[in-house]
Amino acid sequence: MDLPVTAVGVDPPTGLVPRRVLVTGGAGFIGSHVVARLMLMGSQVRVLDNFSTGRIENLADAVCGGLTEADVISGDIRASEGVEVIHEWQPDVVVHLAAQPSLPTARRSPLYDADVNVFGTVNVLDACARSGVRLIVNATSSDIFGSVAAHELPVREDHPIAPVSPYGVSKAVGVHYLDWYGRQHGLSYTSMVLGNVYGPRQEGGDCGVVSLMVDALLGGRQAVIHGDGTQTRDFVYVGDVAEAIALACHHSGVGTVNIASGRQTSVNEVYDTVREAFGVDEVARYEPLPWSGEVRDMALDTRRARELLGWHPTVGFTEGVRMTVREARRRQTGSHILSPAWALSR
Ligand SMILES: NC(=O)c1ccc[n+]([C@@H]2O[C@H](COP(=O)([O-])OP(=O)(O)OC[C@H]3O[C@@H](n4cnc5c(N)ncnc54)[C@H](O)[C@@H]3O)[C@@H](O)[C@H]2O)c1
Fold it and tell me: What DSSP string describes 129-163?
């Protein structure tokens, strides 16, 4: 399967500020940064989220920027009532971030993963196509490429899709549906292949090696490295991702575009960087990889994003980890901005 790189409506920048933007999954890690960024750029923003992993506290910055209780819709992308806001509010752009984003969860429960990531995505796309949404900006993952040979890194957008995990499969299916809705219904889209996103507000849990390590050291626990730690991923700071998504909302659909740093960073290097940001010299504990068939190395080629969106990453890994650790410490001491009063009843 080849990735559909060229989408309907590849145009130069429109320069138009999107008037109304609906962000599905807007209370999540990436979504909350996107909502704040879009509001700063002058758009009216609404959030659709079922708060399965998202948190109202994540929207504190956006509330300071003018987001109100009425702009936060509690609903499920899998339900017809959930996507009703698209028909009623008629956003000109939909940023689709709501998802089951965890690889381990997808392995434990492929049915749940497919329900949210495939069925939920099709429900959103269908509502967009029926409501005349100008543009959909979608988040997919480098996991759609599966295992890539070393000489093919960094991966370009036209690399064959060959996922090796249920999460990679469900995210790849979303990409194919986007392409179909584009061709069949003229739905213009930008589908962002994200590297490993890290930064403030990422929850530990199953997601994100940086936040897992930060949480461990913050809680006085030993960090765990699965495997020998030489496996690599492409890490990109959440602020850079939010900027890319906000920029995409100000363009016509550009098809598939990689959003990452373009560099491989090993898990051992991640730990050293986190450890240095904390100023400690604890060693990590090595444990076997929980699954066979893990992707060994990953990096994404970001030239297309630079050419079509004028985007490039601005935050280096060391700087991004330092900002993440600083914010995690601030949260631990409770000195972050508190939730709005209306949020407390949720
Ligand atoms: N974090 C990463 O490294 C990364 C990498 C590649 C792609 N992505 C993609 O980026 C997007 C955002 O991921 P994230 O890391 O911010 O995860 P997240 O879990 O913080 O955000 C997902 C949001 O979607 C909401 N949600 C989940 N199921 C829903 C449903 N059925 N209906 C309505 N809302 C629902 C959650 O409550 C949450 O607010 C996802 O599409 C994910 O697959 C993330």
Answer: HHHT-SEEEEEEEGGGG-S--GGGPSBPTTSBP--
DSSP H/E element including 169? helix 166-185
Known catalytic residue at 189:
no
Q: Does residue 228 fall inside a structural domain?
A: no
pLDDT exceeds 50 at position 27:
yes
> Percent of the chain having pLDDT more than 90?
86
Return the CATH number at 194.
3.40.50.720
3-class secondary structure, 123: helix
Q: Which domain holds residue 119?
A: 20-200+238-262+294-314
Q: From CA 93, how far away is CA 138, in angstroms rounded?
A: 11
Atom from ligand 1 closest to the CA of residue 208 = 3
| Cα four-point dihedral sign 154, 157, 163, 166 | positive
289: which residues sit within 8 A by CB, 6+ positions away? 226, 227
What is the structure's pLDDT at 331? 86
Residue of the nearest CA to atom 21 in ligand 1?
28
The answer to whether position 280 is within a domain reads no
On the question of pLDDT at 18 being above 90, the answer is no
Tokens representing 323 are 């900002």
Instruction: Name which residue leads in pLDDT, 127 or 291.
Output: 127
- Residue 6 binned pLDDT confidence (cut-offs 50, 70, 90): very low
Q: Domain for residue 64, yes or no? A: yes
Dihedral, CA atoms, 52, 177, 312, 263, nearest 10 degrees? 80
Instruction: Give the total residue count for the chain.
Output: 346
Structure tokens at 266: 């090993």
Q: Please list every protein residue whose CB sits less than 6 Å from any atom of ligand 1.
A: 25, 27-31, 49-54, 76-78, 97-99, 101, 116, 120, 139, 141, 194, 196-197, 208
pLDDT per residue as tens digits for the range 187-196: 999 999 999 9
How much is the average pLDDT of 120-130? 98
Q: Which two tokens stand for residue 98?
A: 């709501």
Average pLDDT rounded to a whole number, residues 135-153: 97
- Number of structural domains (the chain) is 1
CB-CB neighbours of 122 under 10 Å:
18
